[in-house]
């Protein structure tokens, strides 16, 4: 009987926590992104190696870096890729520009900071692939080849799996 009461209490506590999280998500200041933008923003968070949050005119916007695909967090080098992007841009002002949104409504943006192409820097450091489905930029491909030959970042893995292949094998 005591065990049943404990389980009931834990279930109630879990439901209350889930309700509080849902309420927070529904009242957050994240807003739909405009279909195009060029301007300065402050990076307020980094979701993974190719996605960040930026404050634009008082609203948090989730931004996807254009032309690159970083390892997923659960994938080898995923957390390190996220850390690399955080080291580059977190709490800093960046220049963002985009002309389109992805299927999830996220801007697909070029990001620069102090004249550095952040998207290219992730590839150069070995923490992102050139997303070949959306880019065949020779300069980015060269940076990827250099990182690979130097064994930087994810290229230290003898058999790295591209994130698009990893997602396909997981049914995502």
Quick overview of this protein structure:
The chain is an alpha+beta fold.
Task: Provide the helix percentage.
Answer: 25-40%
Strand order across the largest sheet: 1-2-3-6-5
Assembly form of the protein: single chain
Indicate the mean pLDDT: 86
Tally of helical segments: 5
Strands, count: 8
Portion in beta strands: 25-35%
Structural class: alpha+beta
Low-confidence stretches: 4-28
Word description of this protein:
The chain has 172 residues and is α+β, with helices and mostly antiparallel strands. The protein is 37% helix and 25% strand. The longest helix has 25 residues, at 2-26.
Note the main attributes of this structure.
alpha+beta; 8 strands; 172 residues; 5 helices; 5-stranded mixed β-barrel; two-stranded antiparallel ribbon
Give me the secondary-structure topology.
Blueprint: H1 2-26, E1 37-48, E2 51-56, E3 59-65, E4 68-69, H2 78-89, E5 93-98, E6 108-113, E7 116-117, H3 118-124, E8 129-130, H4 138-150, H5 163-169
